[in-house]
Design a protein that fits this description.
27% helix
Length: 146
């Protein structure tokens, strides 16, 4: 296993992980959309929502794809409050294609996959999640809770 590249000056990680738009992430986005639609207000609060623990833990990856965004008030982010973007709604309606993967470096998107997908393309597969510690994939067994 290769060693992680470190900054020669400060020793910080130089890792640039890729984040794939998975069926699990899109499923969480659908729940997010349904919740804000039922309220008639584009505001989603992290506490007290209907997401599973895995969906909630991975939800912020949708931000890298510009499908959700943090709520701001007076130029400052409000902790735990999110909104769905126009891009997120257009993606769910099948009106746009977006890159299947995005690459991040220190919590900022630095590259986009050339492969573009629709919501239908993503949802053809089984629900699976990227594991953040090693970015490998796993598939839950039939009936197994994730």
């Amino acid at each position: 296993m290769p060693t992680e590249e470190k900054c020669p000056t400060c020793g910080a990680s130089m890792k640039k992980p890729w984040h794939t738009l998975t069926p699990g992430l899109v499923g969480a986005l659908v729940k997010f959309y349904k919740e804000v639609s039922s309220k008639g207000q584009n505001l989603w609060v992290r506490k007290g929502n209907e997401l599973s623990k895995n969906e909630d833990s991975n939800l912020t990856k949708l931000r890298y794809h510009a499908l959700i965004a943090k709520v701001k008030e007076d130029g400052k982010h409000i902790k735990g409050e999110w909104l769905i973007t126009r891009r997120g709604v257009d993606f769910l309606k099948g009106q746009i294609q977006i890159p299947r993967r995005v690459q991040t470096f220190r919590n900022r998107v630095v590259d986009h996959d050339e492969e573009l997908v629709t919501v239908t393309d993503v949802m053809k597969g089984e629900t699976w999640w990227e594991q953040e510690f090693d970015y490998s994939l796993f598939e839950p067994k039939q009936g197994e809770l994730i």
